[in-house]
């Protein structure tokens, strides 16, 4: 009885601090997800203490030096200038915040299994200084059960008990970098607690800064919700990519088909084909579920199949390019290919898991001479899966550069590129994104 009373009074006090905005919010991982989230809290008058193992990010935040290009950095300097946003790499300070929100990476291992080392490492760091009354919320995308099995297990090794001494919830991040219609504050936030009190507190926290919260019955349901969203995208991208190949053989333009199909006012949702899949979410997250499902004796076939189809797409693009060069009496070996777009999607600077690297790697192995143009990525980053790619910088987009190449390959369709200029001067254009809807003598749709 006394435990219940004390946990309730603790929760009431924490809730009051959250509602009065006097609660200090700690955000662990100041990347694409954590930093916009930190700003969302500071802009609603919360004080935020950000934590990152990457000291360069911490220094950049204090120096006003942008490290996420598509983010309005004025928001960062104003939050830092107001004193409401501070950042540190000193994890001993994890005891200071009332709330700790975890936004660390959840990649796959080389064997394509969940790499939980970041979440686990963070939970261990928190455990070192976990104190009564703290609310811990995991936001990193992960398999159902992570919060109430893995994270709770580590935190309870301290002797403190979740739901009684501290509070624990999961709330998936739905950030869509570069989306001008929706931002962190306006994307409804799904919230599920390991126990009802934790769920209530997490809902109160996000309810104060985000336009709508969606409460679900448990942290597992919240984890599963996020995976369903990304699996839905992965499977539909695979479907439309496969249809593109089928229609291409039939001499039917997939883009014209999709434009027409999209006029149906119900029962159809458009997905566009492309050179594969990319980013930190869609190519990775679905496999968190397949991995966990095996523990329950189930192998989800749709997800594996979507993976196979999408991972074949960069090779299909290279084949189309090779055939188009061949039609013009050219071999791939020695051909100069100018690749447009390293980022995995348009108008952002994020190249993680980008199909551009698979394509460039294959082009180089076939003997092509490769350069690239990406207005958002002036210098090609070093990439984990392709450590041998040469150092490259973005080529200037000029008529002479275009005329000097054998083919321009559009992998990502950034809006600021002058595609009319590309079509006018490049001898061959291979378009994987439907940039050109018309037929042109030097154009191949791929
Ligand atoms: N990027 C997106 O669009 C997006 C969208 C929805 C969900 N997510 C999910 O959000 C999570 C974070 O993704 P992200 O894109 O922000 O990653 P990110 O790589 O941009 O940022 C993660 C940050 O965490 C830091 N970090 C790593 N280990 C740490 C540790 N032990 N302690 C403190 N900081 C640490 C890194 O230095 C980095 O700054 C992932 O689970 C991802 O799947 C991402």
Question: What is the strand and helix layout of this fold?
Answer:
Layout: H1 2-20, E1 24-28, H2 34-42, E2 47-51, H3 55-63, H4 73-81, E3 85-88, E4 99-102, H5 117-129, E5 135-138, H6 146-156, E6 167-170, E7 189-193, H7 196-207, E8 213-215, H8 219-250, H9 254-261, H10 286-295, H11 301-327, E9 336-340, H12 355-365, E10 369-373, H13 399-404, E11 407-410, H14 419-425, E12 429-431, E13 443-445
Parallel strand pairs: 1-2, 1-4, 2-3, 4-5, 5-6, 7-8, 9-10, 9-11, 11-12, 12-13
Antiparallel strand pairs: 6-7
Describe the structure.
This protein is α/β, with parallel strands linked by helices and 446 residues long. The protein contains 14 helices and 13 strands. The strands form 2 sheets. An 8-stranded mixed sheet has the order 3-2-1-4-5-6-7-8, with helices on both faces. The chain has a 5-stranded parallel sheet with strand order 10-9-11-12-13, covered by helices on one side. 43% of the residues are buried. Nicotinamide-adenine-dinucleotide is lined by residues 28-34, 51-54, 57, 103-106, 118, 121-122, 140-141, 173-175, 177, 280-281.
Give a short summary of the structure.
The protein is α/β, with parallel strands linked by helices and 446 residues long. It has 14 helices and 13 strands. The protein has helices at 2-20, 34-42, 55-63, 73-81, 117-129, 146-156, 196-207, 219-250, 254-261, 286-295, 301-327, 355-365, 399-404, 419-425; strands spanning 24-28, 47-51, 85-88, 99-102, 135-138, 167-170, 189-193, 213-215, 336-340, 369-373, 407-410, 429-431, 443-445.
